[in-house]
Every structure is written in structure tokens, then in C-alpha cells.
Amino acid sequence: MSILRVKAITKKEFIQVGRDTFSLLMAFLMPVMLLVIFGYAITLDVNKIRTVVYDQDKSSESRELISRFRDCGYFTVEAYLDNHLDIDSNLDSGNAFAAIWIPRDFSKKLQARIDSPIQIILDGSDSNTATIAQGYILAITEEYNAKFRGVRAVPLVDARIRVWYNTELKSRNFIVPGLIAVIMSVIVALLTSLTIAREWERGTMEQLISTPVKTSELILGKLIPYFVIGLIDTLVAIGMSVFLFDVALRGSIVLLIALSSIFLFGSLSFGIFISIISKSQVLAAQMAMIGTFLPAFLLSGFMFAISNMPKPLQVLTYAVPARYFVSIVKSIFLKGSTLTMIGVEALLLVIYAVAVFMIANRKLAKRIM
What we know:
4 strands, mainly alpha, 4-stranded mixed sheet, 2 domains, elongated
């Protein structure tokens, strides 16, 4: 392999990228936009549950119960209703997610130490939010019950829960690191998927074929500029995660960058492979989106737990490199993991990167011959 020939191809590609305003915008602006949009838009935290109240009792006891819902930080009381028929209209229209109905004899039964049921209606169209809201409701009502129950029974099992790595249980702390993997896999593959296809469309590929440049030199020369761009994007994404989204980086940034480089090389090689087999920039871009975004978003464990997927899909996730990189990024960010702790994922990324590069090199050689 000639370093001079690789350098020449690299210089040519840098000039080509510099003249392509669209590629530059996609390379530097799109990752920032996607990280901001997804980072703020995607959240699994359940708070500010819109609630309406139908209080028939209007006693100090009912007002205290309502204030407990209002002051806990998870429920926001949108309206106080005068008719139980308004509950249906508020839930149907989406103005409220929960409705609290306190009966007329609520306070009398409490003072007489008699069971005093209240009705709480939840919108089950969002089952995840409804399930979490149920947990909040049970905790609030149990705390309120203790005031009238008197002496609490001593529990036989005293569970004291301590959360590690994400003590505040904020979904942003594990969503944002995962977003870095998803966005990087899409952007770099999309950029390199246009390189070889662009040469075919412009008729310059035949000129490259006639030169002494070997296929491996051609691929490396085209990869290096986009590798530099991808590395800059990765550093920007890490900086935004730490300083904009306030996600603590507990592990080694050097280790994170090193493993990110391996993932970038594999993703870039995959983009080159797509560009080789498509020969069309439009088709290459479509294949890159389908082959990177959907698997990275759905099958990497970024949003949905792999253990909850059907067995065939669980097997399929082993072929998705973003699965390993998402695990690596989350572990380094949240757990401060070292290389020995994530060695298996790192090794699989290396195998993937080398394998895809060799396949791309072999495929391009067949096209040139």
C-alpha cells in the first residue's frame, strides 16, 4: 500500500467535501440539530400529569387530599368540575389524563374510621404513563391513609432502595448518550454512502480505475476525510451531552474517543460498501438510512429493552453494531466503566469494522475488474 497514493486520494476527497456545501451542512449541522431535537423531545419521565377534580365533599379532608396530588410535582390540577359528566369530555378531548372523583360523604367516613372510596380514572391509551401514574397515586393515598390509620404496622421486610449510576432516575441521562451512537451511525454512513456513487454518476470512476491506485488505497483515502469529520462530530456531541444536557461523564474520555473511532471506522466502511453496490446517490442515501437509522433506533437497546423483544429479534440485534456501541457509551457515561468491563463489546466492534472494510474492499475490486 502506498502512503502517497492514499494521501492523494484523501486530498482529493477533502477538496470535494469542501466544495460541497450540502455535505458540509449535513456533516456538522445535522448532528447538532438531531441531538438537540431528540435530546429535548424524547423523555420517559412522567410528570405534570394533567388532572381534573370533581370534589362533591368540599371538606377540609378532601382539599388536603387534593393538595397532596397538586404539591407532589407529578400532577397538575387543570380544572375543578361541577358535574361528573364533564369527566368524560375532559378525558375524551385530551384536556386531562387523570380525573379524581371524591364522593359526598368522604370526610364523614374518614372521621368514623370507615372505608371511604374515591374514584381515580386514568387514560389508558398511553399504558406506560398510566402504569407509572398508578404507582404515584398508590404512594400518595397510602401516605394520606397513615394520617387516619393511627399507629402503623411494623413491616417484616424493610426494603431500603438505593439507585446507582442514575440516582435521579432522569431518562435524559441514558437517552442522550444513546443518541450519540444512533446519530453518529446514521450521519457517517450517509456521508460515505455518496462517495463512490458520486464518482460513478460523474464519470470520474473510470479515471480512478485507470490509475495505479489500489482498491484498499482508494477506500482508505475516501474514508479519512469523513473519519476526521465524524471524530469532530463525536467530540461536539460529547461536549453537548456534558455541558448542554448536564449528563455526567464518569468514565475516561480517552477510552470513549478510542472506541468511538472504531465504531466510526466500521460505520464509514459500511457507507462505502453501500456506495459501491448502489452506483446511485439517491439509492445509496435511502439504503444508508434504512440500514443504519432503523436498526440503531429500534434494535440497539437505545429505546427498547432487547430482553423484552421476541426471540428472533433478539438474535437479529447481534448483527447491529449500534447495539454494542450504545452499551459502551452508556457504560462509560453513567457507570465509568473501564476497558476490561466492556471488552467484549469493544472486541465485537473491532471485528465488525475489519469485516465490513474487507467486504467493501473485495466488492470494489470485483467492480473494478
